[in-house]
Request: fold
Amino acid sequence: MLDRVGSCRIEGEIASGGMAVLYRAVQETLGRPVAIKALKTAVQEDEAFAQRFEREARTLAQLQHENLIHVYEFYREQGALFIVMELVDGIDLYDLLEKVPRVPASVAACIALQVARALTYLHTMGVLHRDLKPANVLLSKNGIVKLGDFGIADDPRYSGDLTATGATLGTPSYMSPEQILGERLDWRSDQFSLGIVLYQMLAGRKPFAEDALHSLPEKIRTQSPPSLTQQCPELPPSLVRIIDRCLRKKREQRYRTPEQLLTALEGFVGTQVGESGQAHIVRFLVERGLLPPAELADLPPPHRRARPLRTWKVPTQLKAPLAHAGLLLVLLLGVSLLRSLPLWTSPSPLAPLDEPEGRTAQLLVVAEPWAEVVIDGQRVETTPFASPLRLRSGRRYVELRGPSFRSVRQTLDLKPGERRVLHVQMPLLPRGS
Reply:
């Protein structure tokens, strides 16, 4: 085993795959634990694999997001190639599913939500992962989900596609129909793969499996997966609908934008989970014996859901008087509300989810160090955020503000289909003001 790579002292082997070995190490210059991915000697003699390995390091080094593995350094020593990256202390989803074949719906949705956040950011950066599967999804002991292994990612910042001669590179069980056919891909292919992963977490099996009559590629291209509702009748229908849409054969029938999928998953988690998604994942891992109970010490207790109100049966003789009194009260409240309303209300500056992209504008706000974003008098977001805001085209009044900053106001005329970046250095208020 290797002893050192650059400034890193190797402590032991974590895992070994067909092309690379993963080591645990310490970066002595900074005193932090790291992981080192080393390309195997037999593989690095192939120039295409060596180029792909280096491209993986360069791609990840340019991407900064909470749900992506961070790369620190790339070394080429004595003909060998190494990537020094963030060490995720936890378990990958592949090993989790070996120990816990079926994951509760609320936990599976929390995991998928964080992966969807990573995909949304990648879409903003123009990057396709193309190999989304359980082995590449890591769950840290603090509940943060990380997406890794960008060996066959499509990054537009580098010319040429190293996978062009092998269009089906990847893991067949998690490929989209268009990836199997070798067609040009977009983010909806990664969406299909995430749908397979989510299906597998809930059902305890992958939706497509080869048999004596049909090959795996044929099933992915032509057959619908076994019904989740029949296999798991207890699953919430709203989550089943999300998975069904991700697994549509025709990509134009899936979620059109990452934000749409993100909104759907956020809506489900918001109604099903009474705590943060990270805390919910940690609690699950502790309950299954995959983390020590001490990890629960810093977690707040989950919110208790209100008990349903007891129903009271109205006596027959009171029904008519109460109905008349209720109608009168509704009329009085309606008149009062109408008097209090302004003559018109301002519509949201955000474009509806079903609005075609060609009719909307995209605005990415980069405020240093941060700011609340107010558009047309409505607070819509707080920076930093990974994906641009989808806005109605036309004139928009943008205000950036914060408790320690002077407000910055700009008027933007946004055209349909336009993509604009607003970069602002927030001016600090004088001390004592």
